[in-house]
Write a structure and sequence with these properties.
By secondary structure, this protein is an alpha+beta fold. It has one domain. The chain is built from 3 helices and 5 strands; from the N terminus they run H-E-E-H-E-H-E-E.
C-alpha cells in the first residue's frame, strides 16, 4: 500500500520525508552517510546509496538496511539525487556523487545541512557551528 496519499505526514521525521521526497521526484537515488556524534564532533563512518522507487520505506526497514554496515551510528545524512529526466541516477553516477559528498563532508561538516540529517530515531537534525571552550 502506498503512503503517497497521506499528506499529513511530518517531513521532520524519516517516514514523512520519504513520502514527500518521492512525491516531489517520482523516484530518486539516496546517498547515505552514517555518522557518529559526540561532543562537538560529527564523524562520517560508512556510506552507501540506494534507489528509491516507491514511498513504502519506513524507519524500521531503513534501520534493517543499514544494520549491515557493522558500525554503531548516531545519525544519518540522506542526500537525494535525480537524473536529468527525474528518477534515480545510474549506479556509476551514484558512486561518483557519493565519493564527492563524502569528501565535501570531511572538508566541511556543514555540508550535511544540504541534505536531510536524521538521528537514530528518525527525527530531523541540523549541524550548527560550535567552538570548543
Amino acid at each position: 500500500m502506498s503512503k503517497s496519499s497521506d499528506s499529513g505526514r511530518d517531513i521532520n521525521r524519516f517516514d514523512g520525508w520519504v513520502v514527500h521526497e518521492f512525491a516531489r521526484t517520482g523516484g530518486f537515488t539516496a546517498l547515505v552517510v552514517l555518522v557518529s556524534i559526540g561532543g562537538l564532533e560529527v564523524v562520517p563512518l560508512r556510506s552507501t546509496y540506494f534507489h528509491v522507487i516507491g514511498d513504502d520505506l519506513d524507519w524500521l526497514a531503513f534501520n534493517d538496511l543499514v544494520r549491515g554496515a557493522g558500525v554503531k551510528w548516531d545519525g544519518v545524512v540522506l542526500m537525494p539525487v535525480v537524473d536529468d529526466h527525474g528518477g534515480p541516477v545510474e549506479d556509476a553516477k551514484a558512486r561518483e556523487a557519493l565519493r564527492e559528498l563524502e569528501q565535501r563532508i570531511i572538508e566541511d561538516r556543514l555540508v550535511i545541512n544540504e541534505g536531510h540529517f536524521f538521528d537514530k530515531w528518525g527525527r530531523r537534525m541540523k549541524v550548527e557551528e560550535a567552538e570548543a571552550q
